[in-house]
Amino acid sequence: MNLSLKANDWRTAVANYGIFIGFFGLIVALSLITDRFLTVRNLLNIAEQASLISIVGIGMTYVILMGEIDLSVGSLVAFTGVITAGTLTGGIPLPLAILIGLGAGFALGLINGLITVYGEIPSFIVTLGMLSVAKGLTLLYTGGKPVWGFGEAFKFIGGGKLVGIPLPVIISACLYILAIIVLNTTQLGRYIYAIGGNQRAVRLAGVKVERIKTMMFGLSGFFAATSGIVLASRLASAQPTAGGGWELDAIAAVVLGGTSLYGGEGRLAGTLVGALIFSVINNGMILTGIPTFFQYVVKGGIIILALLLDKKLRQS
Predict the structure, then answer these.
(1) For the chain, how many structural domains are there in total?
(2) What is the domain-level CATH number for residue 126?
């Protein structure tokens, strides 16, 4: 009996705190390896690098919590970035251009949701198709060339600072606070968890499951658009190839953060830490002279281990 209780305690501790313990251990290890790691400038650089993927990770977390997946977010980052940039260079005022970019991301995400839910096609297939569609639209719109020539107001979104903190970090933090409040304190948040846990039971309880799932895909597109706009501002140009592979980075952050790909379990705080861990690993490789291409090996290995651990915990 005691051994069983101890085993359950261990599994609960790993599920709830493993990601945070691992993050702290990684920071301690790198601070001992190189004295350039724990500097204010380097830590802000890590946070800024992680902010863009972490924003995409918000929408991805919502979708995965419902037992779905969104592989289109990387292409939506590029598409919404060039749409926003194109409207800006075409003389559209900055606030309206940003709204157009965000609306485009939300609309394509909504299409993902409508086809997945009402067409009854697996989200893996639907969003894989949208990945290609958005990439093609981006290349058609730009002719394969970057869009540039922005004013300073737009550049400030991705390159400015407030009280010494990069604006992308502040944007990411504000979005996470809002998203966590929605997920943890509202009825919508409870429905999201419940749909991932037992969709049939939630539907029988009278909840509009189809409407909620469709809306979450729309929000995933919205957050991808937010990241795309910030990225275009940060680079001072909208690259048609931007966001390549970001769908895998976002999924990796979500899975590493403890959200189950089976749905119904997870939290946004874990996704944020997951994004920070990958940013820290990449930064640590640069500081220690390890080839950055090795990060793909590390990332893939971590995803596989996280999935194996998730399956083991669920079976126990």
Answers:
(1) 1
(2) 1.10.3470
